[in-house]
Design a protein that fits this description.
Length: 387
Amino acid sequence: MRIFKCSLVAAVMTGVLSFAPAALAKDAQLPAKMTWTAYTVGTSGYGQAVAIGNMLKTKLGVTVRILPGRNDVSRLKPLVAKRAQLCSCGASLYLAQEGINLFSGKEWGPQPARMVMMSLSPVGMMFATQKDRGIKTLADLKGKRISYISSGPTQNTIASANLAFAGLSWKDVKRVDFSSYVASIKGLINGQVDAVIAFSASPAMRQVSAAPDGLVWLSNPHGDKAGWKRYLGVAPYFIPMKVRVGAGIPKGSTIDGAMYPYPILISIGGLPDDQAYGLAKALVEHYDVYKSSAPGAKGWSIKAQKFDWVVPFSDGAVRYFKEIGKWSPAADKHNRMLVDRQSFLAKTWKAFKAKNDSLDAAAYKTKWLAARKAALEGAGLPLHPVK
């Protein structure tokens, strides 16, 4: 995998100050060098990681190199293998935490995901199409060609949720496989597919908007309670959002859509507490430096943080939030519940794997998902961490 070094090169002021960056990194309780994974070049997740990396270099002397991954699995594998500390990721971390979808196989299972901070902006992840396809609502997708991302459970789950919103499933559409998110966008432009799941602020969507056939976003009307019940039954980590930022959305207009925090800085197993503390502090105190440097970066504001989401915050980040008076007893109770849930799933997985490791891959996944559901129900826990 090609490595992109995205931090700015600090100017050498004088010989006396040449070691200042390392000292700054130490003072911030961060290593002088960090490795993160992110979505591919051209995505908002990558762009925001670059913006934060540049801030860390100029303000703290921390060099961040970014490994762009084509899909959810390739973005999380370096974290599990300890080749990267963080991922500028999406909802894949929720799927990994729960040990579901692509993360239900023998080599995965429930992962101890921890957040440092999240970006939550008035953007959306919705189905996008073009004017000449004759698609105006989600119900119109029936019989149409829909993108499916190989090893991309996040986008595929979002597609499933949007189809469910309209009472549809994959059986009602024609699935077209693509190797990555960006490839699916190109497929829409090239006429290979009729609709794709896309991030409204993604730079790639500007190309769709600028194309002769234009861009159409398919909404999730917030007043449709039955539709939302079906939607959240598939993707409980989503939040109804009035989408006003994105390609093809006129200034002053909004679309009833949905979004989850994206991107999210997460680790598998947790950063050392001092590092998580230092990174959270840098993101908050130097917010003005990077907030306008990439589409969606304003969502890193401390005011935008959702402390009762579906994945727990790291202990170091929590320490900083308490220090600045942003952490409540309710947030603490919720976070402890999520950590306890992860521990329960890890124990369930360990016991299951010890008895079923000889099963073939397909049988293993099927039996694990059934065992996971039975264990949660037996313990009086919901199938999803937030009802």
